[in-house]
């Protein structure tokens, strides 16, 4: 009775969220067509008075909505939960999608940080090779470092460039920039720079060795990630098996959503399956993290 009473409100909310998701999807694919049609209407004689303003407002609204969902991609869990709520006529999938939003946000943030770290690592390796090559060509260290642009380090790199250009403390600036994840190789570059300036050692040779060491370390991590790719794909496949089972049951006419969402036995199975699914995901993630950790940290 409670599920039947709450069904109209769930249907209305789900329909609104699905309409918003469809509007964003259509605007992403038809943005160019809208702009072309607005241009045609603007040059169509009598249609110019009524054409541009409505199209401009509609495109602006869709652009804002697309920007919000583009920055907050975890909100796409809500349309999925709404679709399952519509099919199962229950509020539980919608509540589950609301609970999944912070988890998806955390996963997306971790993936973004990992990509930024890899980008900084690649930039530091390229920096060592570029500076070493210019030094081999006869240029001065400060002149070379001042002319390098490294947008991957954000606001930390202009201080290094300024120190190299105006005779400041380049090693100290490099160590400050090395505080970002993925830029730890700048600490070795700072030490090499300080030794070369104070003792007259070959800076180019030192930077080449640093770049080679960083490249070897990155290649080792990539090889390890490739070896663990099979484990990750197996975990994803096992996590998607319940969804496949639901689809197969629906195709056979068993109506598994009604059993899971509207019967005590189904609710118990759903709760137990969710706990086992979460435990399996956490366990697999832990195995992958331990396997990918450095040798010195595996015992901890």
TrEMBL record:
Species per Swiss-Prot/TrEMBL record: Streptomyces orinoci
Keywords, sorted A to Z: Cell membrane, Membrane, Transmembrane, Transmembrane helix
The Type II secretion system protein GspF domain, residue ranges: 146-249
One Pfam family named in its UniProt record: T2SSF
Residue intervals passing through the bilayer: 235-253, 259-276
Membrane disposition: Multi-pass membrane protein
Keyword Transport appears in the UniProt entry: no
Protein name: Type II secretion system F family protein
InterPro entries documented for this protein: T2SS_GspF_dom (IPR018076)
Compartmental location: Cell membrane
Main location: membrane
